[in-house]
Specification:
By secondary structure, the chain is α/β, with parallel strands linked by helices. It has helices at about 20-30, 55-65, 80-90, 100-115, 160-170, 190-200, 215-230, 260-270, 280-294; strands at about 10-15, 35-40, 45-50, 50-55, 70, 90-95, 120, 130, 135-140, 150-155, 175-180, 205-210, 235-240, 275.
Length: about 290
């Protein structure tokens, strides 16, 4: 099994006619993802490599039965695109775009919670989701992920998402689903959302969690793991060497008042029984040890 998506998931690409949307839409389709439609209000009736373009998400859903969408639209249009997807009838939205204004993220996060509680948003500013061998929505390179394994991955860092997949494949360990939640201040999907789904998924036997400095998401995840997660977890927190008081690259990487440091997050996770590595490779080695005992 996998969480959120599988081999039956039909996906609409909002922005399929653009350079990034068409590039990754083709890659995702070549991987085996059911890319069934694209949207563009002025290009309805055309197609991209045989994938039909509709004026909006509602028309695409009606024609194809799609339940997911992937947004490859410039930052200024993401707020409208997320709401169009939810109003159009999809229940899983992947927003890859980076640079979305925080007030836009807060707006559609709260709108979805209030008006579309059954819609799951992943992102913005995330690599997307891959269930190896079944479905790949977003920008993750499919060849670095091994299918048919016992490990679920959730990561806040895009680059480290790929490294986690690579580390496990090098050790011949497969993955049920890998979710890149993104590092923005208002992510649509949290660590806790993924931990809950992995805990409920019978095929996922262990969980790998990649965090980074800034915010309190990892500390909150540690509390959740302590109280609700029975499966073994390994983790790595990026930013151990980051100088305190200096703003780092990610919008979410803001450290304040001793909270949000790598050390504080690592201590919280270790207190919850998580095996924490000092680098991504060590986190992978810890997961290999865990898998050997399953």
């Amino acid at each position: 099994m996998s969480i959120f998506v599988d081999e039956t998931t039909k996906v609409i690409y909002q922005g399929l006619t653009g350079s990034q949307g068409s590039y990754y839409g083709r890659l995702n389709r070549e991987y085996g993802t059911k890319v069934v439609a694209g949207t563009h209000p002025k290009k309805a009736g055309t197609d991209v490599d045989g994938v039909p373009i509709y004026a909006n998400v509602a028309e695409a859903v009606q024609a194809t039965g799609a339940t997911a969408s992937c947004i490859f639209i410039p930052a200024a249009g993401v707020r409208g695109a997320v709401m169009e997807a939810a109003e159009g009838g999809v229940t899983f939205i992947v927003a890859v775009t980076e640079g979305v204004p925080a007030h836009d993220e807060a707006y559609f996060y709260n709108q979805l919670k209030r008006d579309f509680p059954d819609v799951q948003l992943l992102g913005p500013n995330c690599p997307g989701i891959i269930s190896p061998g079944k479905c790949n929505i977003g920008i993750t390179a499919g060849h670095i992920a091994k299918a048919g394994g016992p490990v679920g991955i959730v990561s806040r860092s895009g680059t480290l998402t790929y490294q986690a997949l690579y580390e496990l494949k090098q050790k011949d360990i497969g993955v049920t689903t890998c979710v890149g939640i993104g590092g923005d201040p208002v992510p649509g999907t949290s660590f806790i959302d993924c931990l809950e789904a992995f805990e409920a998924d019978p095929e996922t036997k262990a969980i790998m969690m990649i965090g980074e400095i800034g915010g309190s998401a990892e500390e909150e995840a540690a509390e959740y793991i302590k109280d609700h997660v029975t499966k073994p977890v390994s983790s790595y927190i990026a930013g151990v060497t980051a100088p305190p008081g200096k703003k780092m690259g990610h919008a979410g990487a803001i450290v304040s008042g001793g909270k949000g440091t790598a050390q504080a997050k690592m201590e919280a996770l270790e207190a919850a029984g998580v095996r924490v590595g000092n680098n991504p490779t060590e986190a992978g080695e810890l997961m290999a040890e865990i898998v050997a005992t399953l």
